[in-house]
Protein: MGT5A-like N-terminal domain-containing protein
Organism: Xenopus laevis
Amino acid sequence: MASFTPWKLSSQKLGFFLVTFGFIWGMMLLHFT
């Protein structure tokens, strides 16, 4: 947490986006099927 490197920050943001997108997609599938 002490050193913020651009590639690490972008990697964490990308991972968070993928998890959020997967969760929303899963909820959509549960509601519309």
Q: What stands out?
A: The longest helix spans residues 6-32.
